[in-house]
């Protein structure tokens, strides 16, 4: 006997059909991603390393995926304003965040309304920039061992400049102090420009910041480059030893740049973005040459979403440990 078609039963069937329709619609949308322009949010002003990294990749993704990838700058609070705007955006893959090593550091030193490890999905690393320990040319040291010995002999004399409190250069100085036991007065500036200017003038003793902009000053003899911060020597400055070669243990620091999506972004969309980014990094000579011309290095090894997630989690822990040991906190 056929059951009567009651109103309650009709509502239930309609609800199931609706749910199936939504699921099919989402799947279709994911399969056709992207079908409208995608926004890449950069938490810094135009012209910096993060912005440049984003714009070069945006051009590659626009060609590969057939939609415009548009960079939008939302500077402020060491990129936290831009990051939060992406966290609060729909998790559909159309608003992404181009973060950096600061994304990992900020979680440890700022009071944030979001948690980068929970509210952002690591998509892929774009590139990295080595840092270098550079000192004023008149400082009577020529290598890291002499620098450490001089600092220990003159505990209140040396200072370390950075582009600002909480920057990777600041935390790099703190890590150097922890690894060597020396004292360096941290001197924060509003940007790298004035910090480098005072380093050249001798108002500050040292700086541990991005290698590419400092290299011309080192080659001209205006600064001394004592050691690069990465575990391996840098191809375009292979004559400069690494910090570990110079006797500083467990020192492998690079300013990296990467793409993140809001938590809840469909895995299929994240996977498609990861594949497109890696395609550009590995098989697009134009993108490779643009990055290399600006001093960026390509990510080494596995750059899958899983591998980058593990790396990002390790970075958050590492810098949280450094910030806690050095008592670095920004309210």
Question: Which helices and strands occur, and which strands form pairs?
Answer:
Elements (H helix, E strand, L loop, with lengths): L6 H25 L6 E5 L6 H17 L3 E5 L6 H8 L7 E6 H9 L6 H4 E17 L7 H10 L5 E4 L5 H13 L4 E4 L3 H10 L4 E5 H9 L3 E6 L25 E9 L4 H17 L1 H9 L11 H22 L5
Helix pairs in contact: 2-10, 4-12, 7-12
Attribute tags:
12 helices; nine-stranded mixed β-sheet; D-Maltodextrin-Binding Protein, domain 2; disordered N terminus; 331 residues; alpha/beta
Give the beta-strand count: 9
Strand content is: 15-25%
How many structural domains are formed by the residues?
2
Model regions low in confidence, pLDDT < 50 over at least 5 residues: 1-29
Helix content: 40-55%
Task: Give a short synopsis of this structure.
The protein is α/β, with parallel strands linked by helices and 331 residues long. The chain folds into 2 domains: 38-129 and 254-326, 3-Layer(aba) Sandwich (D-Maltodextrin-Binding Protein, domain 2), CATH 3.40.190.150; 130-237, Periplasmic binding protein-like II (D-Maltodextrin-Binding Protein, domain 2).
Q: Can you walk through the features of this model?
A:
The chain is α/β, with parallel strands linked by helices and 331 residues long. It folds into 2 domains: 38-129 and 254-326, Bordetella uptake gene, domain 1 (D-Maltodextrin-Binding Protein, domain 2), CATH 3.40.190; 130-237, Periplasmic binding protein-like II (D-Maltodextrin-Binding Protein, domain 2, 3-Layer(aba) Sandwich), CATH 3.40.190.10. It is built from 12 helices and 9 strands. It has helices spanning 7-31, 49-65, 80-87, 101-109, 116-119, 144-153, 168-180, 192-201, 211-219, 267-283, 285-293, 305-326, and strands at residues 38-42, 69-73, 95-100, 120-136, 159-162, 185-188, 206-210, 223-228, 254-262. Strands 1, 2, 3, 4, 5, 6, 7, 8 and 9 form a 9-stranded mixed β-sheet that branches. Strand 5 (159-162), helix 7 (168-180) and strand 6 (185-188) form a beta-alpha-beta unit. Helix 4 (101-109) crosses helix 12. It is globular, with a radius of gyration of 24 Å. The protein starts with 6 loop residues before the first helix and ends in a 5-residue tail after the last helix. Mean pLDDT is 91; it is low at 1-29.
